[in-house]
Amino acid sequence: MMRFTDLKREANFVFGHRQIKLTLLVVFLLSVVSLWSGYAEMQEQQATIERLLEKDQIEREAVITQQSNFGMVAYYAFHLTYAPPSPLAFAAVGERDVFPWKHRIRMLALEGQIYESDTDNPELAFLGRFDFAFVTSILLPLFIILLLYDLKAKEREARRFDLLNVTARNAHAIWTSRVLVTLVPLALVTLTPFVVFGLANGAPVLSILTVCAIVIGNIAIWSAIVLVIGTAKRFANFSATHLASVMLGVWLVTTVIVPVTAHTVINSVIETPEGGDIVLTQREAVNSAWDKPVEDTWRAFIATHPQWADYTEFDPERDSSFNWKWYYAFQQVGDQTASELSRGFQASTLQKDTIASYVALFSPSLLTQRLLSSAADTDVEAMVSYENDVRAFHKSLRKFYYYHLFKDPEFSQESLKALPQFTPSTDTSHNNRSGKKE
Amino acid sequence: MQINSVICANALTVRVDDRTLLDNLNFSVGKGEVFALLGGNGAGKSTTLKTFLGLMKASSGSATVLGHNATTYPNDVQKSVAYLPESVTLYGHLSGLENIRYFLSVAGVAKSDDDIFAALRKVALQEDSWHKALSNYSKGMRQKTAIALALLRNAPVLFLDEPTSGLDPAAIDEFNALVSELAANGATIFMVTHDVYGACQVAHRIVLLSNGILTGSFERIGDAPIDTEAVHAAFAGRKA
Predict the structure, then answer these.
(1) Residue A248 sits at the chain B interface (C-beta within 8 Å)
(2) Is A159's CB within 8 Å of B108's CB?
(3) For chain A, what is the domain count?
(4) Mutation target among B106, B147, B160 for the A interface, most CBs of A within 10 A
(5) H or E stretch covering A82
(6) Under DSSP, is residue B148 helix (H, G, I), strand (E, B) or coil?
(7) Domain range enclosing A213
(8) Is residue A26 part of a domain?
(9) Closest Cα to residue A353, out of A327, A324, A374, A329?
(10) Contact B83/A174, CB-based, under 8 Å?
(11) Hey, is the C-beta of B115 within 8 angstroms of any chain A C-beta?
(12) How would you class B215 by CB atoms within 10 Å of its CB: exposed for 0-12, middle for 13-18, buried for 19 or more?
């Protein structure tokens, strides 16, 4: 049984090596720099949102005061939608690097506004930003290998192994103590800066503890891998250098080859509509409406909005050949035409993400990164949830304007005070991944 | 010398894969006896030593130390023995004193600094070297440090692996004198060596080992060393 004296002795012993202290210092610096990098990025995103919010309000008010009918207001008034960074997003930037986290939208067809910038199936492209998640999931295993690869092999090569085993009151206690006094400081230098950043950024304590548990879990998994290889009978005659090669091979396979191969296979197997196709389909539907009989547009529109079936008549004196009701109806029909592609895109993205979650079971690093992104609300689900929030908001805009366009109440600035305002979702449980709000 | 059996090989056989490394060894070593197992390279000396230390397992027969079977109860054996490996590679970045403190702690043995100083003086390790890093020690100095460690553990049985290999003649004489003194004080010493002369000087009994089989035995009669010529002739003849 291991005693406190074993830990104390091995702590003194391990920290007698300058290499250990240097390694821990490097990990500490990497942790701090990665956190600072993520923090700076999130601060910038937050500042961008605040700057846009301020201008958004001013610009919309200017548009409203200059217009004299609801159709013109709907056409010129933009609305900022955004997914603010969560308090832990600085630790795992995740999909915020790939998916859009802000859109300025208006009453026109929505899908084109969402997919103007195509996304490149990001769920497995993890070797990206240098953030805390990158350090803990990709780099930390390398430091664990560096610290533990020669735990026993070094003693064997120095011919001390037998002496230690024969001399020790409990040989097992030596190795266990050495592992513990190496890994606990490693976890501390990694996590202490994170906890400080987390508390300073106002992250909930439970979320901070969750991230700590994920990182400790990753350290435990990689330590187990290293120790199993280091003590396996199959590798008993391997030198420390050869053992390190085997361990690095395992790291390379599980951290790089498995995810990259899976990424390629998943993308080739799961057919995904291109974002550009969605934009093109929607725009073609909208543009062709100008040349189609008006009745075609109304038929398609009324099929989904039967409540306005009795309000499609034009006012010939006022509207001449153009009418805002019809204009926004064919914008709506444009979205309806692209909706199948759009749903397919989102379903494929989520399906890929689900498959990637199974692949992650074979890659501790990928699993760690996914869990960290999930804890920080920067994963695919969070970004899809934001996308659906945008759709839900756009739907409320349409509801507001359809009433004013079809019922045709008298235009007044007062009535525009009820214009819907986008409120970012604070739901962190990804309940909106399938767009249920719509 | 007393005749109580401290170390005992009873039909000891060790096989690894298809190779028989030790074949039906039978001998016993009494309390206070210096026992030398003599053999050439690959004779099976280190295998015998490792089997008694519980680092290798007997395939059949038994290797016992103080009544403990080294194969089935290696921890019990290891608690009561001290081991001096062929190449004493303690930790080079620690001083001799720090190495002793570290290994005593590993062994769970509490000793005062005075006890440690006394042991270092007993093995004649120069005091000015006690605080120097072991990487600066000669092989003889490292050997002395390891012997001091063995003394401090008060182990009743010492296993020595090629203890005089690489030592200069003066150091060998010092070492032999120390071994004799330990034996006189009741320690049982089991050494494996290919140094015929050294073994004859210090051992009460020499057993020849070749290809895992015992091939001869020489015993000291009275205080006179074992006849080097006779052992050498038997050793050389067996090797030839």
Answers:
(1) no
(2) no
(3) 2
(4) B106
(5) strand A79-82
(6) helix
(7) 4-20+133-253
(8) no
(9) A374
(10) no
(11) no
(12) middle
Q: Say whether residue B105 is in contact with chain A using an 8 A CB cutoff.
A: yes
Q: If you count them, how many residues does chain A have? A: 438
Residue A164 contacts B where some CB pair is shorter than 8 Å? yes
Same domain, A120 and A139: no
Is B55–A166 a contact, with Cβ atoms under 8 angstroms apart? yes
In a domain, A403, yes or no: yes
In a domain, A433, yes or no: no
Q: Rounded to a whole number, what is the largest CA-CA distance in chain A?
A: 105
Q: Which helix (DSSP H) or strand (DSSP E) does residue B199 occupy? A: helix B196-202
Flag whether residue B17 sits within 8 Å of chain A, measured between CB atoms.
no
CB A375 within 8 A of CB A87: no
User: What global pTM score does this model have?
Assistant: 0.84
> Which of A16, A163, A174 lies closest to B83 in CB terms?
A163
pLDDT 10s digits, B213-229? 999 889 888 878 888 88
Structural domain includes residue A261: no
* A159 at interface of B, judged by CB pairs closer than 8 A: yes
| φ, ψ of residue B13 in degrees (nearest 5) | -135, 135
A141 and A230 assigned to the same domain: yes
Summarize pLDDT for A384-422 with one digit per residue, the tens.
999 999 999 999 999 999 999 888 888 888 888 889 999
| Chain A contact for B90 (CB, 8 A cutoff) | yes
Helix-helix angle B96-107:A4-14, to 10 degrees: 150
- Chain B residues in contact with A13 by the CB 8 A cut-off are 91, 102
**Residue A401 one-letter amino acid:** Y
Distance CA B196, CA B175 (A): 15
